[in-house]
């Protein structure tokens, strides 16, 4: 294949990967999260093959060592080590069908980052990428807006959270997307400015009309204020406005530090006010559990996706009597505590180092040229909004991959290899890569997704005479055992309340539960 064909195929893979928020499958055990994650991993693996072929022949598409690449690679390395030496390495790697956010997914996100940072080389390339991000985010936002205002009847699972099925998850995705679009709006030519202006309005409406997403809305307001103040503080010739904006930024930073400290002082009015919000009392209990778990394994943590083990070990009975809280958590619902308990202090420092190195690239470019604050303002605001939102929720693959898009953008701006031309590469490498990707695609994407279909079939088939057989097929792999017991029990409780099942039907469900417990053991 020539350069043009290979570039086109890599572009196709990137476009498919970024379409992940639109993907769902009603035949999968978790129609939204599992289908979406497996789709993303499949798209990344196919993109990887064509990128390897391209980079083999043209060295300008090969990754280079720089501060951003190094920080992202460091975080991945520590996460892998944490998983290996954690409580449950198998779960750390595979995760569960409900999340599909283990090391397997993290590695695919890392590969996605390497492809973007190496392949996208020009302003035009990145503009095309932002156009596509804006398009996908607009579709997600429009579906939500139409639902909120009853413009058309959509599937039940779109009612809260559009295609992402959850108001918080949709909010996380749109929150990251809007600041990327705002950056594109500031950097684009006139012919694209109108498109970015329209899509920014659509996505903003999706954010403000979101039926939930309280943390996202708070993060959006703070991020937008930071974006405006940053532009005024560094990108205006009026000295009075510049001084006032800088004073406001300094005051905001001091206020944020004050609120962050007082929120964890027992009995402080700020803490009590925060706890008065719906669901926050339970959050503080869970954060205390996470802190105790961190102190047991402070360096590398318990391993990614293993928070549920810490929670179950240290379950606090107070959660049972809290009207505003859930009873079971597999996340700490806080970006700091989630990282501390999962990957320890070393992993947590490396996680935030990715953000700091990325911002250092943008701000260094600004202080070097003194003529373009847009990237620094947009992405500083994005990271601040993302952090504020993730103080009470967490990322999914849809929002997480966009964060790594920003990392990749910073990395690509540091590329030094400008040589263009074909080089003599290894003829065997593409063949070997093709065979390896065929194996990994089947092992890590196709097979587990097929098994999720069997599990879904077992959960929904009526009559239930073949459900155990379907469970056998679905649970023959490493995923699904940890989260399906509660899924079946919840299903049984709901049906017991609504359908008044017969004794025979109850026996069948209990048979399922007994089977799953034995499998989990």
Brief descriptors of the model:
521 residues, mainly alpha, 71% helix, globular
Quaternary structure state of the chains depicted: single chain
Counted by DSSP, the helix tally is 20
Mean of the pLDDT scores? 87
- Beta-strand fraction estimate: under 5%
Described by strand count, sense and barrel closure, the largest sheet is: none
Show unreliable segments.
Answer: none
Radius of gyration: 24 Å
What is the end-to-end distance?
50 Å
Commentary on this structure:
The structure is a single chain. The protein has 20 helices and no strands. With 521 residues, it is mostly helical. Helix 3 (67-84) packs antiparallel against helix 16. The N and C termini lie far apart (50 Å).
Please render the helix and strand layout as text.
Layout: H1 3-18, H2 33-57, H3 67-84, H4 89-94, H5 103-119, H6 123-148, H7 167-187, H8 190-208, H9 214-234, H10 239-262, H11 269-275, H12 280-296, H13 307-313, H14 335-369, H15 374-389, H16 397-412, H17 428-460, H18 467-474, H19 481-498, H20 503-520
Brief digest:
The protein is mostly helical and 521 residues long.
């Amino acid at each position: 294949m020539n350069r043009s064909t290979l570039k086109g195929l890599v572009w196709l893979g990137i476009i498919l990967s970024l379409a992940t928020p639109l993907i769902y499958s009603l035949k999968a055990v978790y129609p939204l999260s599992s289908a979406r994650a497996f789709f993303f991993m499949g798209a990344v693996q196919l993109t990887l093959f064509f990128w390897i072929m391209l980079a083999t022949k043209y060295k300008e598409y090969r990754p280079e060592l720089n501060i951003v690449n190094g920080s992202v690679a460091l975080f991945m390395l520590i996460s892998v080590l944490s998983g290996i030496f954690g409580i449950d390495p198998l779960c750390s790697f595979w995760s569960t069908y409900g999340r599909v956010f283990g090391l397997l997914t993290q590695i695919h996100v890392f590969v996605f980052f390497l492809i973007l940072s190496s392949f996208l080389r020009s302003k035009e390339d990145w503009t095309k990428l932002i156009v596509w991000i804006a398009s996908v985010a607009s579709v997600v936002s429009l579906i939500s807006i139409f639902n909120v205002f009853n413009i058309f009847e959509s599937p039940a699972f779109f009612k809260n959270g559009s295609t992402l099925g959850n108001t918080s998850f949709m909010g996380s995705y749109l929150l990251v997307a809007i600041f990327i679009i705002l950056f594109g709006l500031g950097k684009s030519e006139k012919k694209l400015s109108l498109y970015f202006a329209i899509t920014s309005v659509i996505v903003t409406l999706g954010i403000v009309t979101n039926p939930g997403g309280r943390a996202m809305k708070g993060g959006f307001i703070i991020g937008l204020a930071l974006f405006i103040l940053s532009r005024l503080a560094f990108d205006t010739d009026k000295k009075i406005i510049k001084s006032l904006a800088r004073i406001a930024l300094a005051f905001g930073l001091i206020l944020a530090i004050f609120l962050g400290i007082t929120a964890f002082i027992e009995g402080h009015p700020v803490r009590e006010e925060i706890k008065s919000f719906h669901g926050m009392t339970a959050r503080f209990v869970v954060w205390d559990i996470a802190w105790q778990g961190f102190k047991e394994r402070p360096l590398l943590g318990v391993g990614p996706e293993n928070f549920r083990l810490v929670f179950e070990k240290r379950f606090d009975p107070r959660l049972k009597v809290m009207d505003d809280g859930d009873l079971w958590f597999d996340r700490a619902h806080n970006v700091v505590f989630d990282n501390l308990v999962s990957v320890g202090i070393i992993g947590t420092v490396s996680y935030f180092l990715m953000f700091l190195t990325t911002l250092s690239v943008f701000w260094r470019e600004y202080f070097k040229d003194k003529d373009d604050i847009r990237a620094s303002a947009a992405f500083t605001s994005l990271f601040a909004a993302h952090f504020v939102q993730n103080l009470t929720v967490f990322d999914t693959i849809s929002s997480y991959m966009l964060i790594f898009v920003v990392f990749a953008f910073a990395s690509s701006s540091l590329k030094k290899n400008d040589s263009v031309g074909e080089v003599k590469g290894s003829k065997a490498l593409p063949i070997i890569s093709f065979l390896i990707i065929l194996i990994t695609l089947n092992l890590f994407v196709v097979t587990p997704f097929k098994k999720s279909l069997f599990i879904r079939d077992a959960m929904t088939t009526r009559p239930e005479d073949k459900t155990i057989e379907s469970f056998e097929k679905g649970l023959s792999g490493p995923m699904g055992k940890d989260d399906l017991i509660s899924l079946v029990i919840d299903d049984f409780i709901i049906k017991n309340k609504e359908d008044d099942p017969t004794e025979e039907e109850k026996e069948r469900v209990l048979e399922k539960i007994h089977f799953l417990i034995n499998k989990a053991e």
